[in-house]
Target: DUF1059 domain-containing protein
Amino acid sequence: MASKGKRVTADCRKFPSKKKCTLTISGSMTEVYPMAMAHAVKSHGHKNTPLFRKQLRSTIK
Model:
């Protein structure tokens, strides 16, 4: 069952990208963060590093 926490959104348009990606992921932070990380790594070639995790988390509103 999904968490009933605060609804957040990860929007690729808020993060610089050569692909001009428009993907938006919404849900609880526990749902959105891992999906956004997987997307960033697979689709955009980012590395899962502490610095990138911090940057990604700051774009989730």
The chain has one domain: 7-59.
